[in-house]
Design brief:
The chain is of the alpha+beta class. It has two domains: 81 residues, Glutaredoxin; 113 residues, Glutathione S-transferase Yfyf (Class Pi), Chain A, domain 2 (Up-down Bundle). Helix 1 links the parallel strand 1 and strand 2. Helix 1 runs parallel beside helix 3 and helix 1 packs antiparallel against helix 7. The two termini are 27 Å apart. It binds glutathione.
Amino acid sequence: MSQITLYNYYRSSTSYRVRIALHYKNIEFKYHPIHLLNNGGEQHQDSYKKLNPMAEVPTLDHKGIHLGQSMAILEYLEEFFPNPPLLPKDIHQRAKIRQFCENINSFLHPISNLKILQYLEKKHNYTTQEKEEWIHHWYAKGLSALETSLKQTAKSCSFGDSFTFADCFLIPLVFTCQRFNVALNSYPILMQINENCQQFDFIKKSHPLTQIDTPESDRRSL
Ligand SMILES: N[C@@H](CCC(=O)N[C@@H](CS)C(=O)NCC(=O)O)C(=O)O
């Protein structure tokens, strides 16, 4: 029986990052869905907030620890299950990869976070179109910075030809952009890396449209 449980949601990009790392490393895990919308959002239930006081997914349960924050989870998995690696040996490369991830995690991701969008809608009467304009405005800034940095580092993956943490973050970011109709034609390197990685089995297994909680209307076979 699996010793790891991942509390997550099919189309959450932070959950997708962790699923990619788990499948890349061939780590068996139990998928525990947390529906972010049903019943006011299952992330807000007291039983879940005992595991993750931030009321967010993902949460990893392993050997008695409950760990939130996808970056912290990836670091934990890399230390506990070092092979196959998701970080190179070179200390400078590792630092630059973490910087790349944080650009997505700290700046881009919160812009399209559910609770932020719900606040804009409830307190400021934002329509769907206005919420997308908000996302498009901020995402354009972050995406062009990422594209510039990829010019220095990318080959078939974000950092050379090895799949790393950076790709665990980039692929879900592209999925979120597509979900919110962000125009991606100005970011050819980013798009090419996403396309290169879609062929991998561990990406297909992690994809939001193939999970046990993916609604029938969204489900695809890849
Ligand atoms: N920085 C956190 C962000 C986690 C996060 O915001 N998750 C979203 C889904 S992608 C969530 O649970 N949102 C619930 C809400 O906004 O109510 C991480 O990387 O894990």
